[in-house]
Amino acid sequence: MTAAEREHARILASYGGIYENTRLQRLIETTVDRLVAASERPDLKYKVTILNSPAINAFALPNGALYITRGLVALANDKSELASVLAHEMGHVIARHAAIREEQAKQTLIISHVVNDVLSDPQTGALALAKSKLTLAAFSRAQEFEADGIGVGISARAGYDPFGASRFLTDMQRNAEIKAAGSSDGRTSDFLSGHPNTPERVQNALLNARQFSGPGNGERERNEYMQALEGVVYGEDPNEGFARGRRFTHPKLGFTFTAPQGFELDNTAQAVLGIKASGDEALRLDVVSVPAEQSLTDYLKSGWMENVDAASVEPTTVSGFPAATATATGESWAFRLYAVRYGSDVYRFIFAAKGRSPAVDQAFRESVSTFRRLSLKESEQIRPFRLKIVTVGAADTAEKLSARMAVADHKLERFRVLNGLTAADRLKAGEKVKIVVE
Questions:
Q1: Which residues make Cβ contacts (< 8 Å) with residue 269, sequence separation at least 6?
Q2: Could you tell me the pLDDT band of residue 240, with boundaries at 50, 70 and 90?
Q3: Which domains, from first to last, does the chain contain?
Q4: Nearby residues of 312 by Cβ (< 8 Å), 6 or more positions away
């Protein structure tokens, strides 16, 4: 397997595999072809892969492999917005950013190995690694601005509305704010992320666009784009397990559980993570292999987690499944642990709280007790959320249409962001909009 093939396999594993949709694939590929023809490098070839992920992301490899998530495609509202993203990623390839970042990453990895294998002082090692990451991040921030400029130019020369980039970046920021609502984390941006913060990029995109034309010029092809979105899966794919509110369900593995009150769950590639809005309680659910001959009480005492109170370890059952539980303490957090044997695997629940109390511990115990096997009927009835394209009627308002959204919370805000609308915008009879349905 070549390095490119390994990277492709890694990306698919991280982003839920390929999202198969012939109509959407064709629309993206024809957009790419049009952009390539208008770019500084019309000789380059790109292979487009749509990723089956609700994440809003796109990236390109040095070999021209171009990846875009269905979550990003769903957020865009016309072809000029889609084109702005695709052209931005082409900008990275044209400027050889991807190749340069690859080399920088190799250097960071070398430093990391030195830190781990040679340096005995962990503080010195951490500082060396942090400095290497800062160098890489600062370099890529400059790359992002350069790719923005290249991308807007490509889109404009291809005949698309060059203001698509600023509109999409604005919606991306608003979408992130909805996702962060209720979280006390406070980390709205990470200076090591390698991306300038979105307001900066919006301003930069507007300045770039004004060099080519004024607002309203260039093609947007909204109707064609909206038609291609009909029926596209929205949010998490049930085959990968999904969280709706504080309930997590995995039809393929056949189980479900409900987090304590006030928790918001997030299904990642490695684990189900949850945090309470107050920020003082959290949980993690993952799966591990434990030999059948090893008891779960022995497993909890085996050292996979530090500071487990051996006296607290006890066998139990959860919905009829063999289980064990224990407590552990950290510097700032207290933990309640569960290991549940389900089929050939063991599911680990790690509940954490900044302050241990009988009420908090009871809430954790009640949450674990909701872990159960799904019935065949339940599994068959589970359907993913999908986008439905509707035509606005004369009496329709954002409030009326958002009430039809199948999402659990922030219905009006999600409807507006999904359709690129602000609170001041009014719907126009006859236009097409997206709603989320089951």
A1: 13, 14
A2: confident
A3: 3-224 (no CATH), 242-380 (3.40.1000.10), 384-437 (3.10.350)
A4: 325, 326, 327
Retrieve residue 145's tokens: 């601005």
Which of 128-137, 347-356, 384-393, 407-416 is predicted least confidently?
128-137
Which residues neighbour 272 within 8 Å (Cβ) at sequence distance 6 or greater?
Answer: 241, 243, 248, 265, 266, 283, 284, 285, 286
- Structure confidence at residue 196 as a pLDDT band (50, 70, 90): low
pLDDT tens digits for range 366-388: 999 999 999 988 887 788 899 99
Residue owning tokens 């009014």:
426
End-to-end CA gap in the chain: 40
Nearest to 153 by CA among 79, 75, 90, 229: 90
Q: How far is residue 34 from each of residues 60, 79, 80, 107, 376, measured CA to CA in Å?
A: 17, 11, 12, 36, 47
Q: Residue 424: what are its φ and ψ, rounded to 5°? A: -85, -15
Nearest partner of 209 among 172, 170, 154, 171, judged by Cα: 154
SS (H, E, C) the chain: CCHHHHHHHHHHHHCCCECCCHHHHHHHHHHHHHHHHHCCCCCCCCEEEEECCCCCCEEECCCCEEEEEHHHHHHCCCHHHHHHHHHHHHHHHHCCHHHHHHHHHHHHHHHHHHHHHCCCCHHHHHHHHHHHHHHHHHHHHHHHHHHHHHHHHHHHHCCECCCHHHHHHHHHHHHHHHHHCCCCCCCCCCCCCCCCCHHHHHHHHHHHHHCCCCCCCCECCHHHHHHHHCCCEECCCHHHCEEECCEEEECCCCEEEECCCCEEEEECCCCEEEEECCCCEEEEEEEECCCCCCCHHHHHCCCCCCCECHHHCEEEEECCEEEEEEEEECCCCEEEEEEEEECCEEEEEEEEECCCCHHHHHHHHHHHHCCEECCHHHHHHCCCEEEEEEECCCCCCHHHHHCCCCCCCCHHHHHHHHCCCCCCCCCCCCCEEEEEEC
Contact 58, 31 (CB under 8 A): no
Length of the chain: 438
Per-residue model confidence as pLDDT tens digits over 29-61: 999 999 999 999 999 999 999 999 988 989 888
Q: Answer whether 16's CB lies under 8 Å from 237's CB.
A: yes
